Amino acid sequence: MLRSIFFIDPPSFCTTVEGLVAPALRGRPVAVAAQGADRATLLALSREAREAGLERGTPVRLARKQCPDLIIIPPNPELYARASRALHDILKIYAPVIEPLDYGHAFLDLTGTERLFGPAADVAGRIRRESRSRLGLPLSIGVAANKLVSQAATAVAPVPLLEITRGGEAAFLAPHPVRLLPDVPPKVRQRLDDYQLDIIGDVAALTERQVITVLNEAGRTLLARARGIDMRPVLPPEVRQQFQAAHTLATDTNDLGVLHPLLRRLSERIGRRLRQRHLVARRLSLRLVYADFTELRKNAPLRSGNLDVELWHAARRLFTKANVKRIAIRNVALAADRLLEADGQLDLWHTPSETVRRATDLQSAIDRITTRWGGAARQRTTLAAQ
Amino acid sequence: MIHLHVHTHFSFGIGASSPEALVAAAVERGFSSLACTDTNGVYGAVEFQRAAEEAGIHPILGAHLVANGQDTLALATDEHGWASLCRAISAIHWRRDLILSAQLATDRRGLILISQNLIFLERVHRLSGPEDLYAELRPGKHRHRVLARARELGLPAVITNGVIGAHPEDWNRHRLLRAIALNTTLSALPEHEIWPREAWLRPATDLMRLFPDYPEGLRTAAELAERCRYRIPIGRTVAPRLPDTTDAQAQLRTLAYEGARQRYGTIAPITRDRLEHELHIIGLKGFADYFMVVHDIVQHGPTHCGRGSVANSLVSYCLGITHVEPLGAGLLFERFLNPERRDPPDIDLDFPWDERDRVLAYVFRRYPHPQSAMVSNHNCFRMRGAIREVAKVHGRPAGEIREVTRRIPWHGASGPLDQLIRRHPNFQGLNLPEAWQHYARLAEPLVGTPRHLSLHPGGVVVVPTALTDYVPTEPAVKELDGYPDLTVPVIQFEKDGAEDAGLVKIDLLGNRSLAVIRDAIAAVHQHTGRQIDYTSSDPGDDETTKALFRTGQTMGVFYTESPASRQLCAKSRADTFDLLVLNTSIIRPASNRYIHDYLERLHGAPYQPLHPSLRDVLSETFGIMVYQEDVVNVCVAFAGMSLAGGDGVRKALSQKRPTKRLAAYAGDFFAGAATLGRDADTSKQVWAMILSFSGYSFCKGHSCSYIQVAQHACYLRAHYPAEFMAAVLANGGGFYHPFAYVAEAMRMGLTVHPPDVNASEYRCTGRGQGLQIGLQFIKGLSHATCERLLESRKAGPFHNIRDLRQRARLAADDLRQLIKIGALDSIADGYTRPMLLWQLDAGGRGDRGGQRDWIESGAAGQRGGRAVLEDVPRLKPYSEERQRREEHAALGFLTSSHPMALHAETLRRFRLCRSTELRQHVGRSVLVAGMLTTAKPVRTVKDEPMQFATFDDGHGLIESVLFPDLYRKRGHVLFDQGPFLIRGIVTEDFGAISLTITDLDRLERVAYLDGQNRA
Lengths: 386, 1015
What we know:
The complex is a heterodimer of chains A (386) and B (1015).
Chain A: E1 5-9, H1 13-21, E2 30-32, E3 44-45, H2 47-51, H3 60-66, E4 71-73, H4 77-94, E5 97-100, E6 106-109, H5 114-117, H6 120-135, E7 140-144, H7 147-156, E8 161-163, H8 169-173, H9 186-194, H10 200-204, H11 208-226, H12 237-240, E9 244-253, H13 256-276, E10 279-290, E11 295-301, H14 308-322, E12 329-341, H15 345-348, H16 354-373
Parallel strand pairs in A: 2-4, 7-8
Antiparallel strand pairs in A: 1-6, 1-7, 2-3, 5-6, 9-12, 10-11, 10-12
Chain B: H1 19-28, E1 33-39, H2 45-55, E2 58-67, E3 70-76, H3 79-94, H4 100-106, E4 111-115, H5 118-128, E5 133-137, H6 142-153, E6 157-159, H7 170-181, H8 204-210, H9 216-227, H10 248-264, H11 269-285, H12 288-299, E7 305-307, H13 314-318, H14 326-329, E8 347-352, H15 356-366, E9 372-380, H16 383-393, H17 398-405, H18 417-423, H19 435-443, E10 450-462, E11 473-480, E12 483-494, H20 495-500, E13 505-511, H21 512-528, H22 543-550, H23 563-572, H24 577-586, H25 592-602, H26 628-639, H27 643-653, H28 659-675, H29 680-691, H30 700-719, H31 721-730, H32 738-747, E14 751-753, E15 765-767, E16 770-772, H33 783-793, H34 801-808, H35 812-820, H36 833-842, H37 865-870, H38 880-891, H39 904-907, E17 925-939, E18 945-952, E19 957-962, H40 964-970, E20 980-989, E21 992-1002, H41 1003-1014
Parallel strand pairs in B: 1-2, 4-5, 5-6, 8-13, 9-12, 14-16, 19-21
Antiparallel strand pairs in B: 2-3, 3-4, 7-8, 9-10, 10-13, 11-12, 15-16, 17-18, 17-20, 18-19, 20-21
Helix pairs in contact in B: 1-2, 4-5, 5-6, 10-11, 10-12, 16-17, 16-19, 18-19, 21-30, 21-31, 22-30, 24-30, 26-27, 27-28, 28-29, 30-31, 31-32, 35-36
């Protein structure tokens, strides 16, 4: 399915909002920083302050020297939260799904709303106008098929509204520096610097085999990102929480006869929710809380990412790794993260093997039974049957 | 009542008071005797004995012995007792499993044992009877059990107070020391690790009140004190002896004459007279054996340089111990040895720093422990350490502590520590929390408190019998390089204590420059076939060498390379042996004001010595006191003091805290001067000149020995610059940072080649006009890795990256480092550095068990490995700027250009004056930029801090001075290499150019602010 993702970026949000309540601040170099603290640094700054050469993280003392007429105001989190809520109220009119990011910023997923509201660019224009007229808040909006490109669009363009058309992602990203790509681990960044690969286009031009030989799995993700492919879903935080499942045992125990079935139930719950939302998870984490309230966490990568069989196997492996203390277990928690949209999967990877396809088919059959007849309709035999 | 259990601060980490403080407190409280019983040591016995004798109370020497759960006091009644005590202490340190009762039961003649340890008392009683065995009663509940058991055994009991401080308030410092010693915080310090609050030197009446039930315990203590009569004999000499000699004097004579024939060919009468005279005195003082021992060491050692007063002896010249001809240099034997001198003479020998351990090992094998040992150093808290430790036990984070301690000057700071932190220029703009003032006040009294034993840099004592009869020994932590199975023994006395106890010290010191000369000579031999003989050749007349000295171009040349030395050489245009000796000796901390006089007079200004009586004494030094000898001679000539008295003044001046003894000598001096009718003002001036020798100063023999080494080094620099500079860098440089030497090498016209896997050795090498940087400078590359690489290269040069990795089995990270700095460029096969890195990463990681590694498994073909390797994308080469950045990060300097080139862009924005053009701007204010080469904080006559700094702007060196005003304001800026932007006024003094700085700042800061202003 072709998606339509917006990234909403109100420039200098905190200081602009401060300017809305105190007009005297408008057009002046303003920065937000904690007051009275010795080592305070600038948390947010206005455009004018940025133009004076200041950055986030500059120590207040140094900032005052560099820009003597800098106005420093204490952080006012309630104000920013209120402004964020007001902005979101406008966004909610158009977007069925909002993923807030920091004060003011947000990803919107408008996939499938075209019939209702018209072309994405028009919607973006309307959002900007409404925000300006109702709140006095200017917005930059990036419109693209995924999070990566929409966010990049606001980061690079001097224009307040930029739509990257489908298929144009790679070409759009190509001339920009690699630091624009999100979620690249520091070690990979270091390597890219070693290879002098500092432009996204240079990375995108490599073959997949080349990248994998030097960067392993991290290379696969990197290459996809460099080519503008990004299947991360837009999810509100409350939905993300659905992919976590925990259970506190009535009696602390070490009995595998109790713990394994529990783990199985938890993994199946997560699997069902992932499949319902057409998502896959690239990582599963397990947390054990022991009777003495010490905790152990383990995590493992997932391949297919939403089949009960795989989740259950991964969960059991993690459990064996984490269950190393001679103390009874009190609480078990599983969580799936690094979520991606399931649809894009087949395009990106090689064609699935016969076993994978059969496992998928089996899973859909079971899901259908469960949906139709309820959870009790299927009975588990022994694990050996698999 | 007498205190028999007293810990001075030589009980490391326990005692809070110095022997002097304890003795003073004892006098104040009316005690006639006082014991010194430090834990498992007699480290401070000599100091204690001196202090007690000066204060007129009776010292009792002993120790508190603690080992494996047993403990006892042991007091020496006589010589035998002292020897037993030394043996027992040594045994405790050498044998981990020592059972104290067993050791002392069999070896306690002359010792009085006093213990509160019941097991110890019972066992010693059973094994060796009740004689001289006493129970110790300390305040507290435990004493009742001790007393009961003592009565059962029929042992008398003695009352002590287990003293750890002179005054009640010292207890807080005791806690601080405990926390520091146990490496914990004050709040976490366990109760049982602390001694009681009452453990101070309490008056007798206090203790009487505490022990109403046992008054005889106090009487017994007094009786025992009477019996402990032992004192360390001061002034006796225990000279070393060669193991298999019978008539050392005759042997020495034979050797001396043999040597003289070799040195001189024919022996002139004047030489013969001197030789006979020296041999006579040596025989008289009984030092023939000593000479033979040193001769034996020199015979079995590498290139060396005998220095110090021993250079004044013709015998040592003939024996090959020293290499300066003493008659020609005008060196008097009496300065080394004379019938009046009571202390043993010092012989100092320098060896190449990397061969010194071999010499030590030879000594320890030839005179096995306990015949020989090293002299110890009592490491005391200095300001940095004291405040660091105090902050640590208060739980301050390491980063914050470092910020404070690195700002505390090593030298030349005075006044209280809290004032220093508040006022000193280095602390400008640091905004320290208030708590640091408190720490500073706590740290202040710790300064000077000993914290642990370490080794004297090279002092070795050798005795014919056993050292443990005179002083306890301990195993040192140090391992000799190349001799892992040899434990280094160390005596508990410091240099001064050893001397007082009559142990003759031989100094075997490491010297980098001898290694430089050795390496350069070897390289010259290898490259040209020319063999330069270090011991006999004389480079003094070489014109090229002289020209370098004269112009101060002596960077890398031993002893004359500091900015002060180079500038003085240039100002005085000194190039002869005599003048160089004079030049290097006159540079002392407090002699600045005399240097100017010296220069004027050298250049022909007429002068009068301070007093006519000094004309002869100071004739060769233009009426200025230069050498240590001058102090003695002036005291004799001007104030009519005896030679011994003059020598006393000299010794007092060279000590760390000379004030007290010096005051006495000052009295003698002025009295003597008055008797001879000297006018009071002149006397004061002469005395002031004498005082300028405090701290450190040189005897003429010392400077002569070193100038000879310097001339050799300078000769090599003049004629074989590549070999010489390579040797300087290979041996870890000297006064300057490697970057300064590399910059100098470039100025000398040498081409500096960056590290290369086929061309580089581990150390730097030089040949012709090329200087090849060695692998030693690559950060993060271990010595073992380099060894492996060089070993595998013996089979032939490497052809490409695969060949290199296969043969040298390098870890990926090492290879990465080598690629990044371009060490593989010569075998790159057309690949750029990024492409080589790519190949490296595509090849898998050798350090990861080799599973994915095409080299280890030899499976290059199987996994399509070779195909993978050849499938390398085109990656662009590093820009020149990036190459420089990588090089600078890995080496700390640049081989292709000067480090200032990294900032060329920024520098273009300023109108700068080059270092080479300064001479045209004398008297004017100029703007220069440069990296900080070296900085030296000093104090003015008025005791204000100021600083000399040397900068390198890529064209040459800029000598500069920050006077107190500016140093206070801007001194804190000079904390790393920079670069800095400097404004100053050019001055000229005797032809040498210097910059008086009026303002300075970091280059990037100025550039940034400048950019701001333009915008």
